[in-house]
Design goal:
Elements: E1 12-15, H1 16-19, H2 37-47, E2 51-55, H3 56-59, H4 66-82, E3 89-91, H5 110-129, E4 134-138, E5 143-144, H6 152-173, E6 178-182, E7 191-192, H7 197-204, E8 213-215, H8 219-224, H9 229-238, E9 246-247, H10 266-278, E10 285-287, H11 297-323, H12 325-333, H13 342-347, H14 351-358, H15 364-367, H16 374-385
Parallel strand pairs: 1-2, 1-10, 2-3, 3-4, 4-6, 6-8, 9-10
Antiparallel strand pairs: 5-7
Bound molecules: 5-thio-alpha-D-glucopyranose (GLT) and manganese (II) ion (MN) (2 copies).
Length: 390
């Protein structure tokens, strides 16, 4: 049995805003002191994380002078190098300042949209300086409470114009960014544009530089929408668009809880780790979650440790599942193909394949009576997770 000690090769990352979260919520004030970015780098490095991600203003205050900005960034860079940490992803805070109260890229106001693009360019400069290769776009304020306020087709067009502009900026500067759009159905807006992974993928296909744009799905966000997160991630992977991922825990039908990874829905977390590992996903395993408001500073690092340990334990369970002869026997039986029909469907339409499908004949009623053993399969999965198999 492994010690579940995270290694750099596990590529575990945390946002500065995650372990740095002070526990403020709409009903109560902060419960923890500020944890400085430099201390976050140091503590996460000790725990075995690979890197940290940031919004521009997690590091540099929005009104910092250029000299203040440079001093902060230089100190942070020193910490990264002292503790062997990286910044694989960067993003822009386009939601906190009142200027963005009615949206950033989708705002009705061209001045607000232009400022959002300018702020993003400065933040892309910062990310590039720190070595980031993935740039995330979470449009938290891109939406409505009052549908009379926006023509939604125009809002989407405005969003596209900004994305196209920023793609060109990245290309122009030679930053080599991959852009990852992060969907969310609601919160903080009543309704957010591009609410799900599916809508983000459809939007990406309409961008001028769609090849450099993909998604950053978050467990909590698809779960809030009542969707199957594993299926959403699978669709993104299958079309080569999983550029980043936000791992956390969430109960369905609640506010955005951003719980520790695997705190809720252990089976869902297991199939997510299985999907990523089996598919050979080589991107970051980013935890976008918050320590509970009940925690003091020790609890913050318990939280970070827990996210990584749960991932590694589930990864071990995936190996058990994949090596279990009874489980694999059931799964392999599901794709039995004595008539060799799968290659026909894969090869597609031709005269010969048309004839094969046209002439297909079998006892449909009898075949429809077969049991699929899913009761047993799911119980065996549960037993793997409960630790009594393998
Ligand atoms: C914010 C949000 C997250 C996004 C972050 C990136 S910030 O905390 O809740 O889901 O990933 O902007
Ligand atoms: Mn997120
Ligand atoms: Mn969230």
């Amino acid at each position: 049995m492994s010690s579940y000690q995270p290694q750099k090769s596990d590529k575990f990352t945390f946002g500065l805003w995650t372990v740095g979260n002070r526990g403020r919520d709409p009903f109560g004030d902060s419960v923890r002191d500020v944890v400085t970015p430099v201390r976050i780098v140091k503590e996460l490095s000790k725990l075995g994380a690979y890197g940290v991600n940031l919004h521009d203003n997690d590091l540099v205050p929005i009104d910092a002078t250029p000299a203040e900005r440079d001093a902060i960034v230089n100190e942070f860079k020193r910490a990264l190098s002292d503790y062997g940490m990286t910044v694989p992803m960067a993003t822009t805070n386009l939601f906190f300042d009142p200027i963005f109260k009615d949206g950033a890229f989708s705002s009705n106001d061209p001045l607000v949209r232009s400022y959002a693009v300018q702020k993003t360019m400065r933040s892309m400069d910062l990310g590039a300086e720190l070595g980031a290769k993935v740039y995330v776009f979470w449009g938290g304020r891109e939406g409505t409470e009052v549908d009379a306020s926006k023509r939604p087709m125009d809002s989407i067009k405005y969003f596209r114009e900004c994305m196209d502009f920023l793609c060109e900026y990245s290309i122009d500067k030679g930053y080599g960014y991959k852009f990852a759009l992060e969907p969310k159905p609601n919160e903080p807006r009543s309704d957010i544009f591009l609410p799900t992974v599916g809508s983000a993928l459809a939007f990406i296909a309409t961008l001028k530089h769609s090849e450099m744009c993909g998604v950053n799905p978050e467990v909590a966000h698809e779960t809030i929408a009542g969707l199957n997160f594993v299926h959403a991630v699978a669709q993104a992977l299958e079309c080569g668009k999983l550029f980043h991922i936000d791992l956390n825990g969430q109960k369905m039908g609640r506010y955005d809880q951003d719980f520790r990874f695997a705190q809720e829905d252990l089976k869902g977390a297991f199939f997510l780790v299985k999907l990523l590992e089996d598919a050979g996903y080589d991107g970051m395993r980013h935890f976008d979650a918050h320590p509970l408001r009940t925690e003091d500073d020790n609890g913050v690092w318990d939280f970070a440790t827990g996210c990584m340990r749960s991932y590694l334990i589930l990864k071990e369970k995936v190996a058990v599942f994949n090596a279990d002869p009874e489980i694999q026997g059931i799964i392999n039986g599901l794709t039995n193909d004595p008539n060799n029909l799968a290659p026909v469907l894969t090869a597609g339409y031709s005269a010969a394949n048309l004839a094969t499908i046209d002439l297909l004949s079998f006892d449909r009623v009898e075949y429809g009576k077969r049991g699929l053993s899913y009761e047993k399969l799911d119980q065996l999965t549960t037993e793997v997770l409960l630790g009594i198999r393998g």
